Amino acid sequence: MQVLSARATSSADAIRTVFDFFSKYREGVDDKDVRADLTFGNPHEMPLPDMVRAIKARMDPQRPDWFAYKTSEEEPREVIAKALGQETGLPFESDDIAMTPGAFGAIALAFSLLLDPGDECIIPLPGWFCYATTLRARNAVPVQVPLAEDTFDLDIGPIEAAISRRTRLVVVNTPHNPTGVIYSRERLAELAAMLSRKSAELGRPIFILSDEPYRRIRFDGAAFTSPAAVYPHTLIDYSYGKILLSPGLRLGYLAICPTMPEPDRTTLREACATSQVAGGWCFPDAPLQYAVRDLESMGIDMDELQRKRDRMHGALTQWGYQMTKPAGTFYLWGRAPKGDAAGFARDLAGHGVFVMPGTLFDRPTDFRISLTGTFEMIEASLPAFQAAAPA
């Protein structure tokens, strides 16, 4: 007898590799023998003290309705609209902002707003491993399109070739997880021109979902352009969990591009709250929304993170690894020795060092390192990387 819906089964199948890895990757290794866990973007040091103080302050109720039902509160939306406008040069208003439980919640909201069953959404390969499962949960169809080989830049030709009558949305993740590539304004403008032309052919807009949770995590003074700056039919998702290195802090937002044609902009504005309620009251907890004014200006030490990047990237390239030097995010992406990421990850695990094999990104030749580990963890891991280096 069938218990699960076809939708639930399809969604589970799309994420099964990740769950299998998460449940087993430290199997057989005693905790005392772990040198470095460089898999997920989790913190390994105590949280930012200012962040903790801000959240504690907002836990203290100031009026009877402090913990009443909350949708998207006006104050954080005003703060975000102003800050996002300063970053992008676009005239965001508070009504363009929907408060969500992290960027994940914003992505789910965008999919719910734009996609009917059978609609197609183009996602990058390699790319974040939760796009497909979130799409399948809505009976939408993920269409993987490879990024440019070696550079991992947007490859406009293959994206255009993948567009069909059912295409409704293209996900652009910049800075990109797992490679750390940031797309140039010129390349984004090229994508925008193509999507404008294809939208006219289809008779309805193809939207961009600009997945930007790492927007403020950039190295070497790298510039950043949001697709919203060049393409009006863009939605932006963002998470405070990355810049604060607190992924369990489920606070983010979905923003509607203010240059979007007014009828479409108004329709999306009005539909956000009802879609969030229908999705299971998908709003951040009240104290987190109250804390946005303080959290907006906080962030991890980027100089320290860049030193970690430079130390790890320098050591691995010295030993013959083919690595992509990230311009953003807190990840390092490279080619596994012999192109066998799963075998490479097992070899490192035998030395108490854990990395994420590219199989989780449908790229079995490569691997990802999270730079959120401590300096001590990074130094402790290097002998294992050196021992496993390409011949």
From TrEMBL:
InterPro entries: Aminotransferase_I/II_large, PyrdxlP-dep_Trfase, PyrdxlP-dep_Trfase_major
GO molecular function: transaminase activity
Every Aminotransferase class I/classII large domain range: 38-379
Highest taxon listed in the record's lineage: Bacteria
Keywords in alphabetical order: Aminotransferase, Transferase
Protein name, as recorded: Aminotransferase class I/II-fold pyridoxal phosphate-dependent enzyme
Gene source species: Albidovulum marisflavi
